């Protein structure tokens, strides 16, 4: 390996794909430039970056580039093993939390250590994580979603400055603002993916940017469309909570930092379920969200951490230039 090359692993969680760099072993001086170059969907990393037997056909996503670079630092002296996670996005920005990225971190740490339980240190706080026996799926504690306008953050600039922004018009969509580690705007729309007039009829790349950049979101926001296709009431209609099933919500997310729609967004999935609960659109605390890249299982209890569970997979190993210019 050249002195100017760094080993990388590529993983994805429901199509949200990430390059992973072991930040203890390898220094990347300009992380933003590295992410901008190698995440580019036109000119960025491919499975050809792999070396020897590690090269496998780009699997479930099979796409060039990535949704970000995870710079990871692992400390096995702790029990459970701790991993410090920093996500640098395709535009060079750093995100304080990433749900699917954290699932990738758990799988990467498992592949290194064989452990199944981890603590992941993010800029949004320390999160517990675990992988299944076969490591094909990971669960992350996602913290407590907040609608507090000071913490989303939301800046109304009027006499409602202290009120949460719940199902209100913002730049053409009716949105609910929630922070699940990063800021999200959630617009509940009619009709799921199977509805010819439903969620997939929206041109997300057109409708999301005005919300993402709206003045009411001083730090910007990820923008989610969500359609409740099963409210989870199920049962016999008696209202008995033991009859409550798992709700099903179709989800699409336009991500800040990617500046486009991703196949899946974990913090977005939790935001969607938290918003649906807040609006009284689903019965219980559990839901499956269905972003384009695959299903995610979410819990948002009345008290305590939300959780995010879903599949995670390794795509390939390789090396990339540290300085891509
Ligand atoms: N894809 C992530 C979210 C990453 C952060 C986001 N783009 C932001 O800048 O807020 C996830 O799975 O949560």
TrEMBL record:
Subcellular location: Cytoplasm
GO biological process: one example: lysine biosynthetic process via diaminopimelate
Enzyme Commission numbers on file: 5.1.1.7
Superkingdom to which the source organism belongs: Archaea
Site entry: Could be important to modulate the pK values of the two catalytic cysteine residues: 184, 255
Pathway of action: Amino-acid biosynthesis; L-lysine biosynthesis via DAP pathway; DL-2,6-diaminopimelate from LL-2,6-diaminopimelate: step 1/1
UniProt keyword terms in alphabetical order: Amino-acid biosynthesis, Cytoplasm, Isomerase, Lysine biosynthesis
Keyword Acyltransferase: no
A single MF term (Gene Ontology): diaminopimelate epimerase activity
Catalytic activity from the UniProt record: (2S,6S)-2,6-diaminopimelate = meso-2,6-diaminopimelate
Residues binding substrate, per UniProt: 16, 89, 99-100, 222, 255-256, 266-267
InterPro entries to which the protein is assigned, alphabetical: DAP_epimerase_DapF (IPR001653)
Cytoplasm among keywords: yes
Family as reported in the entry's similarity comment: Belongs to the diaminopimelate epimerase family.
Protein name: Diaminopimelate epimerase
Organism: Halorubrum laminariae
Gene it is expressed from: dapF
